[in-house]
Amino acid sequence: MAEYANPDVLVSTEWVAGHANDPKVKIVESDEDVLLYEVGHVEGAVKIDWQTDLQDQIVRDYVDRAKFEKLLSEKGIANDTTVVFYGDKNNWWACYAYWVFKLFGHEKALVMNGGRQKWVEEGRPLTKDVPNYPKTAYKVSRVDESIRAFRDDVVKHMGAKKPLIDVRSPKEFTGELLHMEAYPQEGALRGGHIPGAKNVPWATAVKEDGTFKSADDLKAIYMDGKGLKKGDDVIAYCRIGERSSHTWFVLTYLLGFDKVRNYDGSWTEWGNLVKAPIEKP
Amino acid sequence: MSRIDEIIGQFQGADYQETLVMLLDYSEALPPLPDEYREARDAGFNRVPECETPVYIFIDVKDGKVRIHADVPEESPTVRGFVSLLVDAFEGVAPEEIVSAPENLIHSLSLDRKLGTRRMFGLSAVYNRIRSEVRKAGGVN
């Protein structure tokens, strides 16, 4: 059985339980539900919210460098801290936060395999105690735009017939639905997908217990199934760039692809753009 | 002053963290669904379909007073807290009071500004469902 390309990027719930008081490690919970951390979280974990902490509240973008530095300093995360992400819904938002951390060049970042679901199902303890760590002086040394694709990059990519992976549900891909089921506020005026994109719904990459599928299974899905190769220049997208950050994580770290970018504008940008080409069966 | 106006006042004056604490308290205070409604819930009746979280709302109007019973999973504390807030605000009031409550309650409570607009759709769906059920059950237009 094949190994993940970077097996060290995943840690188990057991590993996390054993590192609750490790000063070199900070555990970060990122959930879709803004209140879940308050209900109870892994001992020592801090909360980072994808919407209120990581996104700019006015411009459609992430927070700027200064705000990111302030956020991490207040959470007690230093430049050399090993950050372990976990969250609800198969680590969906944990991977999103992970991607944003990588965008700001954070070096040591890991994901707790199985996320919050596995931790809870194993009967591990949750606490309401919010830790208070000494402030750090976090500095962003470089912003790594190589993992982010913008609209114009996608236009070029499409023109060059390079691989595009649409990780939305099949109904969103075909254009039958203008939004993810039950998320109609994040709709677009037009349905369908970017011409040439292949559809692999993001959650295809996880097992029922929330952990990632094996390297062999992932290879069968993305490489044998969709013809992607490790050296390919790949852009992944979804609706607002969150589900595709999960696929970005899988392709980059578990399968070892060299160049994967997340198009965070995604369908809520493309499907609203005047004259943007759309494929719809 | 109606209970909902009091609650709106409390939420408007609260910062982000205080808002979370109030919602969490509400989430923990939601009474369990009475036994007589469980069969209907298990059969899939009275689910709010627009909400991603499985939310079940049962509205009765007896002697001119509204009774609200709800079931929301504990893993979705934001929606659960909001439903519990609505129970606190509207349990036992006259149907007219619910119908005349602010149309955009989420905004009045400033939840959209504090928790992010992207999370508000499910909450709006629950609120609108309660109002439309009350209109039907209470015969109010």
Account of the 3D structure:
The complex is a heterodimer of chains A (281) and B (141). With 281 residues, chain A is α/β, with parallel strands linked by helices. Chain A has two domains: 7-143, Rhodanese-like domain (Oxidized Rhodanese, domain 1); 146-270, Rhodanese-like domain (Oxidized Rhodanese, domain 1, 3-Layer(aba) Sandwich), CATH 3.40.250.10. Chain A is 30% helix and 12% strand. In chain A, strand 7, helix 7 and strand 8 form a beta-alpha-beta unit. In chain A, helix 4 (88-103) packs across helix 9 (243-254). The longest helix of chain A has 16 residues, at 88-103. Chain A is globular and about 50 Å long. The longest helix of chain B has 18 residues, at 121-138. Chain B has a single domain, classed as Sufe protein. Chain: A (Alpha-Beta Complex). Chain B starts with a helix and ends with a helix. With 141 residues, chain B is mainly alpha-helical. Chain B has a two-stranded antiparallel ribbon with strand order 1-2. In chain B, helix 2 crosses helix 4 and helix 4 (77-90) runs parallel beside helix 8 (121-138).
Task: Please provide a brief summary of the model.
Chain A is α/β, with parallel strands linked by helices and 281 residues long. Chain A is built from 10 helices and 10 strands.
Task: Please describe the topology of this protein.
The complex is a heterodimer of chains A (281) and B (141).
Chain A: E1 10-11, H1 13-18, E2 25-29, H2 36-39, E3 46-47, H3 65-74, E4 82-86, H4 88-103, E5 109-112, H5 115-121, E6 148-149, H6 151-159, E7 164-166, H7 170-174, E8 198-199, H8 215-224, E9 233-237, H9 243-254, E10 259-263, H10 266-270
Parallel strand pairs in A: 1-5, 2-3, 2-4, 4-5, 6-10, 7-8, 7-9, 9-10
Helix pairs in contact in A: 4-9
Chain B: H1 3-12, H2 16-29, H3 35-42, E1 56-62, E2 65-71, H4 77-90, H5 95-99, H6 105-108, H7 111-115, H8 121-138
